Recover the amino acids of this structure.
């Protein structure tokens, strides 16, 4: 199994501050259309195929792999991506919370396996190393917040 976690401050010094509502709006928009947040060409399709008051189902092609995700929302708190089909199985969570000092934080964590691959095999170990690297999910969190600020400045959020 792959377990990874990363946390970043939503409002580091020198950045335009985001409210919880604005950071939440960015997370919801990312769930609805990953193309707006991922590097150009990485996500070539992202369609919401079902939605309710508590979740959406999206079908996407990311890094050439087709996947279907059930995405659950806990308003202004947590977005959970359940990997229904695709190369991975398990859950990915993005969570907004205040730390002990009251500063807003964005945390990522996941528990995943690779479908059709040996548990704790070389593929899972390589994926674990990627998730935990400087280019892994910590970088993705920072990129999500940067893009949220850009969309806010453009009046698109």
């Amino acid at each position: 199994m792959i377990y990874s976690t990363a946390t970043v401050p939503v409002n580091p010094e020198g950045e335009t501050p985001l409210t919880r509502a604005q950071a939440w709006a960015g997370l919801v928009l990312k769930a609805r259309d990953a193309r707006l947040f991922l590097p150009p060409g990485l996500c070539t399709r992202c369609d919401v195929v079902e939605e309710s008051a508590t979740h959406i189902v999206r079908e996407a092609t990311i890094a050439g792999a087709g996947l279907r995700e059930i995405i659950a929302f806990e308003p202004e708190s947590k977005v959970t991506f359940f990997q229904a089909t695709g190369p991975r199985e398990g859950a990915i969570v993005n969570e907004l919370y205040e730390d002990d000092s009251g500063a807003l934080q964005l945390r990522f964590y996941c528990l995943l396996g690779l479908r059709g691959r040996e548990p704790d095999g070389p593929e899972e170990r390589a994926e674990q190393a990627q998730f935990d690297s400087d280019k892994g999910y910590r970088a993705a969190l920072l990129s999500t917040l940067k893009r949220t600020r850009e969309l806010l400045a453009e009046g698109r959020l």
About this structure: Strands lie at 2-9, 43-51, 55-62, 65-74, 78-85, 88-98, 104-114. The CA atoms of residues 2 and 88 lie 10 Å apart. The chain has a mean pLDDT of 94. The radius of gyration is 15 Å.
